[in-house]
Amino acid sequence: MELLQVTYREEFNNLGKHLHSIAYAAMGYQRVLEENRKLYNQVQDMKGSIRVYCRVRPSLSGQSNNLSCVEHIDDTTITVLTPTKTGKEGRKSFTFNKIFSPSVTQAEVFSDTQPLIRSVLDGYNVCIFAYGQTGSGKTYTMSGPTELTEEGLGVNYRALGDLFELSNQRKETISYEISVQMLEIYNEQVRDLLASDGLNKRLEIRNSSQNGINVPEAHLVRVSSTSDVINLMNLGQKNRTVFSTAMNDRSSRSHSCLTVHVQGKDLTSGSIIHGCMHLVDLAGSERVDKSEVMGDRLKEAQHINKSLSALGDVIAALASKGSHVPYRNSKLTQLLQDSLGGQAKTLMFVHIAPEYEASGETISTLKFAERVATVELGAAKVNKDSGEVKELKGQISNLKAALTTAKKEGEPEQLQRSQTISISSSPEIIIPSLGTSPSLPKSQSSSDHSSSVTNAENESSTTSRRDSLEIQEMLANPSLWPPLGKPASSAKEDNKDSASGRWNETLMVNKNDKKDPIPAAGNARWNPTKVYPEQNLNKLTANKNTKGNQDHDQQRIRPEIGSTDDSSDLDECSEIDSVWQSSIPKVTNNNSPNGLTSKPKKQQYNHVAKPKSTDFKSAIPSLIPSPSTRKPSNGANPNTNKPKRKTGYSK
Ligand SMILES: Nc1ncnc2c1ncn2[C@@H]1O[C@H](COP(=O)(O)OP(=O)(O)OP(=O)(O)O)[C@@H](O)[C@H]1O
């Protein structure tokens, strides 16, 4: 008996040791996995691959069928069931940078996104966009649920909160300014959600890789706290909601884009970094009853389809490293051009509805995402000007502008003087407007208001030779630059914000463009037309358009963008590929005043999806999958109004 006990104890001890070593090995394995993931991410960073995170929405209560098409999820792989196939072919696996299961919280999603977001403060351009069929959770990820709570806050809110926190931590070394724009693309029109007349005004996109301000006419609002952001987003959402009162969930009918512009000045070296981040909630797709798709609704459906299709074409061209990338085929791809083809860090959140009947659309969506993940943009680059470079650029700008003015005005003396300085005459250089200040005296007005040169160029073109000398003084003494949002005349009185002279200057010119004879309003490329410093935020909010757009007082019908026949889900997937491979018709006339083309030259899509039932027929052939279910939150009827989105949040 004793012998047995001894043996037992020994074995027990051995087992314990064994377990211990297994646990140790497991820990090591986890470490290796983690390291591998980091290395993999670094490689991805170096290649500049578009990161793809996949999020699976939980099955929503009230849905009759709780069967899920998602068979298995781990950290990076998702396996979905294909309804019409059996055995091995009955399931398909996809691998992405990260998979978020339905139970993952908003905070967890954000924490995986945070490093990317933070890099905007280091001068990188970042783009995060949410993609997926309607009702799959895009808005939930980017903004949050209908009734916002602290835990429910989406990426947009958290991102800005985090940027404030980090900029505050760095305030001893870097002085940051953070400003935002809120835009939406509806029916191929870019609208300013922060302007009272933003829904009526058509804005132009100007791709400027210099400062990321691609829609200079849209309000650029300086923010410095989370509550500023919440106020702004509430305003933006209200503009959208007002517009959608009778349009039934407008958010799904338009692409919304929150753009965050960051400028930082290194307080020791004087170097300037500027980063820009687009946070995009794309319009969703849904099938539509063909018989009801007419007039405006048909147009709306076609625009969504076209722009998502154009996004697919751009991705396809990038993935195949084609020489021509058709960015100009839609406003969406134009807006995202710098992020998709430039030196940005780009992340796509692909959203999946888990319902079994949505599996066709889910597979199509995942196939699209798989393709996106193959796109290599090249390593992202920091937008940074050292103090010296900044100064030299400023000088070049001034000299170049002086030359232009002299030439224009035919002042031989001035011309001669300018021409002796060869560096100033390079027309190719796009010059950041560091070298000039709006506080300088403006002796003349330029006649070239429409030129799309930089502020510095425009502005400097109005200065006399004496002014040029003053510019040098300004360069030597940045404290003379006016702060953001203050009139030029008071600039010298307030030196506090002078660290960011470059941006201040740009903005100031705009602030003054109505009353000031300085012809900065003509500077379409650099000028954000209006700038509201934080103190003006309330005023801005008060000015919002409450009238809404009654002309859109009609029921929304979602277009069918994806093929919808559940019985042929994999065939549907090939539709995406065939669209990618198709030649790209010029469906959008970017030069037309409204950006619309009344008659597309050619149907853009190769396939017309088969109707699933008599209730739904395909009006829009597919690039993007459409769900076979109505939006759960919405009730089952596609033609009933979805409850008005309320994403307002008060802290
Ligand atoms: N992760 C999630 N957890 C809980 N609820 C979610 C989640 N994702 C989405 N939902 C809910 O699902 C519904 C649809 O989500 P959401 O409106 O974000 O979809 P969407 O993709 O933006 O749709 P649309 O394209 O029509 O705008 C909402 O009621 C939302 O609150």
TrEMBL record:
<feature type="compositionally biased region" description="Polar residues">
    <location>
        <begin position="579"/>
        <end position="597"/>
    </location>
</feature>
<feature type="domain" description="Kinesin motor">
    <location>
        <begin position="49"/>
        <end position="375"/>
    </location>
</feature>
<dbReference type="InterPro" id="IPR001752">
    <property type="entry name" value="Kinesin_motor_dom"/>
</dbReference>
<comment type="similarity">
    <text>Belongs to the TRAFAC class myosin-kinesin ATPase superfamily. Kinesin family.</text>
</comment>
<dbReference type="Pfam" id="PF00225">
    <property type="entry name" value="Kinesin"/>
</dbReference>
<keyword id="KW-0505">Motor protein</keyword>
<feature type="compositionally biased region" description="Low complexity">
    <location>
        <begin position="421"/>
        <end position="452"/>
    </location>
</feature>
<dbReference type="GO" id="GO:0003777">
    <property type="term" value="F:microtubule motor activity"/>
</dbReference>
<feature type="region of interest" description="Disordered">
    <location>
        <begin position="403"/>
        <end position="529"/>
    </location>
</feature>
<feature type="compositionally biased region" description="Polar residues">
    <location>
        <begin position="625"/>
        <end position="641"/>
    </location>
</feature>
<feature type="compositionally biased region" description="Polar residues">
    <location>
        <begin position="453"/>
        <end position="463"/>
    </location>
</feature>
<dbReference type="GO" id="GO:0005524">
    <property type="term" value="F:ATP binding"/>
</dbReference>
<feature type="region of interest" description="Disordered">
    <location>
        <begin position="541"/>
        <end position="651"/>
    </location>
</feature>
<feature type="compositionally biased region" description="Basic residues">
    <location>
        <begin position="642"/>
        <end position="651"/>
    </location>
</feature>
<keyword id="KW-0067">ATP-binding</keyword>
<dbReference type="GO" id="GO:0008017">
    <property type="term" value="F:microtubule binding"/>
</dbReference>
<dbReference type="InterPro" id="IPR027640">
    <property type="entry name" value="Kinesin-like_fam"/>
</dbReference>
<feature type="compositionally biased region" description="Basic and acidic residues">
    <location>
        <begin position="549"/>
        <end position="559"/>
    </location>
</feature>
<dbReference type="GO" id="GO:0007018">
    <property type="term" value="P:microtubule-based movement"/>
</dbReference>
<dbReference type="GO" id="GO:0015630">
    <property type="term" value="C:microtubule cytoskeleton"/>
</dbReference>
<dbReference type="InterPro" id="IPR036961">
    <property type="entry name" value="Kinesin_motor_dom_sf"/>
</dbReference>
<feature type="compositionally biased region" description="Acidic residues">
    <location>
        <begin position="566"/>
        <end position="575"/>
    </location>
</feature>
<dbReference type="InterPro" id="IPR027417">
    <property type="entry name" value="P-loop_NTPase"/>
</dbReference>
<protein>
    <recommendedName>
        <fullName>Kinesin motor domain-containing protein</fullName>
    </recommendedName>
</protein>
<keyword id="KW-0547">Nucleotide-binding</keyword>
<feature type="binding site">
    <location>
        <begin position="132"/>
        <end position="139"/>
    </location>
    <ligand>
        <name>ATP</name>
    </ligand>
</feature>
